[in-house]
Each structure stands twice: as C-alpha cells, then as structure tokens.
Design a protein that fits this description.
single chain, alpha/beta, Glycerol-3-phosphate (1)-acyltransferase, Nuclear Transport Factor 2, Chain: A, 2 domains, 7-stranded mixed sheet, 6-stranded mixed sheet, 15 strands, globular
Length: 440
C-alpha cells in the first residue's frame, strides 16, 4: 500500500505563468510557503470540477507508472494554461491520492485576490529555494519549463514545446535526486481557434504596449463557442516512465542538466503524439458521442453510488495505506472489530479507527484489498473483500473480511467488521428492524 501524501503535498489549480519566464525563476524573493491543502480541500477541488468532468470526461494513461515517492512532474503547458490543470490535479487525487504543488510565476503574485486563490490550491512561488524546500520535504512538484511562452501560443504553434535553453528544473532534480515524471496534456488546444495574435497588426501593437506597461503581452485571441469561450472537448492526460536523476549525483554542471532536459523533452513530445493519436481514434472525443455514451465510470457508479464511493475509498487504502482512506471517513467515525476478535473492541474517532486498521493489517501481513462484492442496503454498504500481502499475483491470500459501512452525506460514519458474510447480513437485518421500529 502506498503511503499517504495528504500531509506532505498539495494540489495546484494553475501553475501557469504570467510573464515570459520559465516556471522556475532565478529570482529569490523572500516568500513564506503556504501550507499544503488538507485532504478535505483536495476532495473539494475534485468535487468542484466534477460537473465539468462529465463534459470533458478526462481519459488518463500511465498513472500507475508514477513512483511512490516525491517526484517532479514536468509537462507541456496548453494555451491559456488554466483549463486542463485542475482536471489533471483532480484525477491524480481521485485515482492515486497523489497531490502536487504547482510552481507559479511572480506575475501571479502581483494580483492580490488571484494569488490567494491559487495558494489555497497549493501553488507556491516558483523560486529555486522554494523548490528545494518542497523537495526536502518529499513533496510532489509540478513545473512547466515553457512557462508563459507556451501559455501565449500563436497560430501554428499548437502543442509546441517552447523551452528555449532552460535547465533550471533539471538542475534542481539532480541536486535533490528527484525522479522526473514526464507528462502530456491534450484537448485544450482543440477548444480554440486562434483568430488574432502577435502577427495581427492592431493586436501586435497592443501586445507590445502591454509588455512595456505590465510586463506581459496580450494573450492570443481564441474563439471556441464564442470569444475566449472554449468548446467542450475531451481532455487526455499521459504520464510516462520516470527519469532517474541520481546517476548525475554530484554533477551540478550544465552538461548533466542538459542531458536530463534532453531526455525529458522528447518523452513529453512522444506523450503528446500518443494522446493526439488516441484522441483521433477515440469514438467519444466528440461531445455528442460522450453525452450519449455517458462517462467511463463503471455501471455501479450510477446504479449504486454509495457502494462506488466505498470502493473508491478502499482503492485509496490500497494506494496510500489505511490512512489514505481518511478523506472518506467522518472525523468521528467508529470502527467495530469482528465478533470474538482477540482484544477486540470499538474504536471511536477517525484517527483511532485508522490506527486500529493499520495495527491489525500489519499483524496479519496484509497490504492490499480486492473487493469481491459491494452493494447498498439502505444507508449501509456491505463490502466483501480479500486481504492480500500484495497486489494481484504478487501477494498471497491472507483472509476474507466483510465490512458493513454506514454512509451519510458523503462520509463513512461507522464500520463494522465481520469474518462471516452471514454474520454481516444478519447485522444488516437487525439494523433494518431497529430502524423500522423507531420510525414514526
């Protein structure tokens, strides 16, 4: 099971840049790092983008390749830099309980309310010292070497990486021995047709004036459903194999950094081409086809949403250990050991319940759960699952457990554990009788 990343990392809705600089700046202004968002805040991020996710239906490739440790995510910025990043952050959190600190350019911090909103999502100022601090704490970091050059793409530059000779991200990864995970994003640049850019006479004059006055040019003008209003295209994300930087340990020279950069860049470009081909072959890349077919979630997500909710919590357990399921538990959740369990009892409070699960699974040698069956009985969900020492064929069978979970208002409030399914069903019947007798 993967360690919890809730306390060590956070999510950023936008690391995009507002000036013609790379994400990692050479300037070192003093700036206190904002605290990482809590698991509750990250769940809120996922819930905020959920309605739009039904339209964009993000499709993710290679998320299982991300190592179980702090990494430096390096990828391509799409036009305007704000549309797809929140969806990627939400998918990382929902699918793997991975949270990321995005690096923001100094231009963000010139806008009072805007900078505060981004910091609530976990953004930090993109300085070398801040990156070093994040890496020293094992946090996941997100960088776009193309910065604003890629955000302000002109006509004919769709999905082009515009890195120039920037090496900062590679130097810092080498310095901290951080693996680099190349990633690619496709979909946003099909949402707009650029109708005016720096090559347009009037626009170019205004753009030059803006650059002199505020330090940033005028963004290209794109039209989707309307001016600057995107078309609801599907979003695609790809994560590649991590790039080891420890082989360059002790080599802060440009040659080592250039070698890492020159390995990262073609990996991202290959990811972009893979996603563009996948998009062309995807029968759901059109909005009508997506709405007709529905989402990629399994049927249980619609037919039994509470059971699906619990299954997602157990998947978080698999990836981050019992503590990874903390976001699914109510603060005052109760856990009841199986009847007759040695030293069994009732454990009150989320932390106590999580500690008990960690204690018991460690004693049994269990590290992975495979859900055999999950279904709702009123406000309770009965889950039958196999506990294994590892995932799939890597782990040996430890035992089968049956959990009855109370789900109320999007949280698990009570967990009762049984060794026999008949005992769990009997408990459900008894609870149903109690509920019926107390109804007016």
């Amino acid at each position: 099971m993967r360690r919890s990343r809730v306390s060590a990392a956070s999510s950023s809705p936008s690391p995009s840049s507002g000036s013609r600089r790379s994400t990692i700046s050479t300037d070192e202004p003093q700036h206190r790092l904002p605290p990482p968002p809590t698991a509750h805040q990250l769940d809120r991020l996922a819930s905020v983008v959920a309605p739009l996710s039904r339209l964009t239906q993000p499709k993710v490739y290679g998320i299982e390749r991300i190592p179980d440790r702090g990494v430096l995510f390096v990828g391509n910025h799409t036009i305007y830099g704000l549309v797809d990043v929140p969806f990627m952050m939400a998918e990382l959190w929902k699918q793997r309980e991975i949270a990321v600190r995005g690096l923001g350019d100094h231009g963000h911090y010139a806008i009072p309310v805007w900078r505060n909103l981004l910091e609530l999502g976990g953004m930090v100022r993109g300085t070398r010292e801040n990156v070093r601090s994040l890496m020293s704490e094992g946090q996941n970091v997100l960088a776009f070497p193309g910065g604003a050059d890629e955000v302000f793409k002109q006509r004919g530059e769709r999905y082009r990486l515009k890195w120039k000779e920037r090496l900062g991200f590679a130097r810092l990864a080498i310095e901290s021995g951080y693996p680099i995970v190349p990633f690619a994003m496709v979909g946003v640049e099909e949402m707009f047709d650029i109708v005016a850019d720096d090559a347009t006479p009037v626009v170019s004059q205004v753009s030059r004036l803006m650059r002199r006055l505020v330090g940033i040019p005028l963004p290209p003008i794109g039209v989707g459903l309307g001016p600057m209003l995107p078309r609801p295209e599907r979003l695609y994300f790809w994560f590649g194999d991590s790039i080891d930087t420890t082989r360059f340990a002790g080599r802060p020279d440009d040659g080592a950094a250039r070698a890492v950069r020159d390995e990262t860049r073609p990996a991202i470009e290959a990811g972009i081409e893979f996603l563009r081909a996948a998009r062309d072959d995807d029968p759901r890349h059109g909005i009508i086809a997506r709405l007709r077919a529905g989402s990629d979630e399994p049927p249980i997500a619609v037919s039994d949403p509470d059971a699906w909710f619990v299954m997602r919590g157990l998947e978080a357990w698999n990836h981050s250990g019992p503590a990874g399921a903390a976001a699914w538990l109510n603060l005052w959740a109760e856990l009841e050991d199986p009847p007759g369990w040695p030293n069994g009892g009732r454990w009150c409070g989320r932390d106590a319940a999580i500690n008990r699960v960690e204690e018991v699974t460690a004693e049994l040698g269990g590290r992975w759960v495979r859900v055999v069956d999950a279904r709702s009985f009123g406000e309770e969900v009965l889950v039958s699952m196999d506990l294994r020492s590892g995932r799939g064929p890597e782990g040996t069978f430890v035992g089968t457990f049956h959990m009855v979970m109370d789900v109320q208002q999007g949280e698990i409030t009570r967990i009762r554990v049984f060794l026999q399914r008949d005992e769990a069903l009997s408990s459900l019947d008894n609870q149903a009788a109690v509920n019926a007798s107390t109804r007016p």
